[in-house]
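hiii, so i know i said id send this last week but things got crazy w the move. better late than never?? heres the sequnce for the chain we talked about at the cafe, plus the structure i predicted for it. fair warning i was half asleep when i ran it
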Amino acid sequence: QVQLVESGGGLAQDGESLKLTCAASGDTFNAYIVGWFRQTPRQEREFVAAIRPGGSTIYADSVRGRFTASRDNTKKTVFLQMNSLTSDDPAVYFCAATTSQLFLCRSTTYAYWGRGTQVTVSS
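okay and structure toks below
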């Protein structure tokens, strides 16, 4: 098992940046693919990005080119650098972990979840 804790959320101005951190503890971190999802009160949980143990990434179309996922396996930490934030980005952001190689854009693929961190963008 793995436990996940997100941090780094907060308030940013339109066009500014935030960097989220997902700190893991527990089982062998290198075995897990880590995904980022976000959710608003009016929408279902939405895939944002995923990063494999070797560092390869996939992104949702809505964030590609603006968000970058990275990880430090020695520190059991995953990051989501969010640049050029817009009014479409405010949400609670979650990190999640899975050992599955398939369907990484689906929230149901992930067995372990953090509690989320709030991101707010002010115009």
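btw The mean pLDDT is 96. thought thatd interest u
miss u guys!!
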